[in-house]
UniProtKB/TrEMBL annotation:
Coiled coil: none annotated. PROSITE patterns: VOC. This is VOC domain-containing protein. Pfam families: Glyoxalase. Residues 5-129 form the VOC domain. It comes from Candidatus Roizmanbacteria bacterium RIFCSPHIGHO2_01_FULL_39_8.
Length: 135
């Protein structure tokens, strides 16, 4: 198994195949893709935007478990990933048939951002980095 080299988050999702296709379409690459019959779970380790993501799907998980009663109804509001150009990202997302949850906007902190939802309903915010910062 690969070692973690970036900050990461772990998500439990409703549909592993839809999730895999979605994250590949927005620029992530698969580092690990493992099914364990012993643990009755599918595990993905994805990498992109200087960030790693663990993705889990369990065989006996109820549909919509990750966004209803799971974890006492707490959930992630969104996670944010840096990009150099929101205009280019928007073109790429639309070309890959990724629906925009929220078009390019400006936050109260003055950052330009765009939002999409993954197949489970988690919101991903892409924010434009200042031109002098690297990604």
């Amino acid at each position: 198994m690969a070692n973690f080299i970036y900050p990461h988050i772990a998500l439990t999702v409703n549909n592993i195949e839809e999730t895999k296709r979605f994250y590949i379409s927005i620029g992530f690459r698969i580092k690990e893709d493992v099914y364990s019959s012993e643990k009755k779970r599918h595990f993905l380790l994805l990498e992109g935007y200087g960030f790693e993501m663990e993705v889990f799907h369990f065989d006996n998980q109820e549909k919509n478990q990750s966004d209803t009663e799971n974890l006492m109804k707490t959930k992630i509001h969104h996670f944010a990933l840096p990009v150099r150009s929101l205009i280019q990202l928007k073109e790429d997302l639309l070309k890959n048939k990724v629906e925009l949850f929220k078009d390019i906007s400006v936050s109260s902190l003055g950052l330009k951002f765009i939002n999409v939802k993954d197949p489970t309903g988690f919101v991903i915010e892409f924010f434009e980095t200042p031109k002098n910062e690297s990604q």
